[in-house]
Amino acid sequence: MPKYAPNKMPSSVKKQYFELLREGYKGAAAARVVGVSASCGSNWFIEAGSMIVPDTGPISPRFLTQNDRIAIADGLQAKQTVKEIATSIGKSFQTVYREIKRNAKPDGSYHPWWAHNQSLLRRRRPKEEKIRGSEPLRTLVREKLTEKWSPQQIARHLAREYANDVTMRACPETIYRALFAGLLGRREAKLRTGRTRRKKQRRGVPTLNKIKNMTLIHERPIEVTGRTVPGHWEGDLSIGRGQGSAIGTLVERTTRYVHLIHLPHGWKAPQVRNALITQTAHIPPQLRRTLTWDQGRELTLHEDIEALTGFRIYFCDPHSPWQRGTNENTNGLLRQYFPKGTNLSVHTARDLREVAHQLNRRPRLVLGDRTPAEVMRECLTCPLTR
């Protein structure tokens, strides 16, 4: 029988050999099928770590497959660069760098079947939590939490102090999971935030619009941005202590004129709708063009408000307060009268009118040291053009 050099055979032959082993073939039988000697097959098996881990089947395309690892090994043998290898298999070069570093053999060489076996071993589930299985790691993490270190600080400390000991390494997520699972003792006072339970995690899951038939700010007329035509307002709620009370704030973009909405019966959608309809009725129709609001649930009934007030309502993007910058600035001014964390229900409608009166008669640098009341008066006496 001819002699075969174990590392000279094509990768396709080796791949078929290992596939047969995973199907349950004996080593000698698999070697006969692929046309090599039993000793050649044995050398391949030893080189792969003397074990064959069952493959669980198809996985997400973002993970490397056996074929990808074979291509990486062939590329390294052909002296290709990592970026060339990554391009050939359709992965990022960072993925290939991590793969070579993580799954190389102890001597530094990269063997595709060894690497694939290591990957399959790590993928096995269920798997014992790392902190549960290591008393030294658990003790150290518990001590640092007691010293008010954050999980991120602990993870960085472990990476620095135990750079060569993977058993004493833990990422922040591992520490959080162990803490909330009760592996690190009492959860109280362990985190600086004081949390004792895990927040819901929805990374990468888009949040559906809570308000039906919204018109987003990107569809708002371009004249609103220029601030040359009055009648375009921004609105928001200023929330009181314990979210038990609120005051509605409206500010006109061109004149900075402020109008406060009294909400004595709460600030859910029906109460806000009724208050906006009744308390903006005195505003001249030509000054009721648009109203920009955030995506708060208090404006769920925006279609009723539009129909009965004449405002065309536009909603900002989520978590984008700068899209209502004038209103945010006005809310800051209002804190002088309504400090944060106080009960806003004690203020009457007359109190709100007095506060708005003071703000509207305060000179503003952005208006050339004129007051919002003066600029609004000019808008009402001069012809309005679109």
Automatic annotation (TrEMBL):
Name the SUPFAM superfamilies on file: Ribonuclease H-like
All copies of domain Integrase catalytic, residue ranges: 217-380
Its function, per the record, reads: Required for the transposition of the insertion element.
- MF-aspect GO terms: DNA binding; transposase activity
Origin organism is Streptomyces acidicola
| Family stated for the protein in its record | Belongs to the transposase IS30 family.
Q: InterPro entries per the record?
A: Integrase_cat-core, IS30-like_HTH, RNaseH-like_sf, RNaseH_sf, Transposase-Integrase, Transposase_IS30-like, Transposase_IS30_CS
Protein name according to UniProt: IS30 family transposase
Query: Which chain regions cross the lipid bilayer?
Result: none
Example GO BP: DNA transposition
Please indicate which superkingdom the organism of origin belongs to: Bacteria
CC terms in the record's Gene Ontology section: cytosol
One Pfam family from the record: rve
Q: Which UniProt keywords apply?
A: DNA recombination, DNA-binding, Transposition
